[in-house]
Amino acid sequence: MRETGNAQARPYHHGDLSRALVDAARRILEAEGPAALSLRAVAREAGVSPAAPYHHFKDKCELIDAVAQQGWHALGEAIVEARRTAATPREALGEIGVAYVRFARANPALYRVMYDATRDQETMPEHAKDADSGFGQVEEAIIAAGGDPNNSIALEVATVAAWCAAHGVAEMVGLKQFEPLMEAMGGEEALVRALLGHITAYDHSTKARADA
User: Among 22, 108, 4, 6, which residue's Cα sits nearest to residue 62?
Assistant: First the structure.
């Protein structure tokens, strides 16, 4: 188990205590996993009193929800950047898929908490409906690549399909069984691009890169 910090190593100096606590929770999460998360542990990691977190979170569940929301925001930023730097709308779809998988692989514990925190919700979180959320950006990218903005059902299906495809690749690409294939392809990102290139939602934007 890796040391994450303590009050001496990470003293709290600024006014945004809520953000400091969420950041501390993320450090614990990635170092030790969800089971190690508690308000007391987060207080210790942030360098504040054990009572301080209760001014912002009534319990561990509220803290985890805040961590998950920060994760969704970070994923949205990664998707925005992938779309911004793509050369064409078609290429943007592929780059979004790659950015999604890259984020999931770089933040495995956070990624798992993001889905665990939203799995039983009856509606999508409010932040997921924003235009610059990850989901909103995928929808906008599909429209830019030729999707019909007036066919709301088809557009939502296409957006969900693209999201599911990237999620599936993120889940599968880390399996040890695929390590020989990954090595033959020239690394993880090359394999990710090749896999996405065989999925309809991404086929126009990733095949050229995968074949290069």
Answer: 22
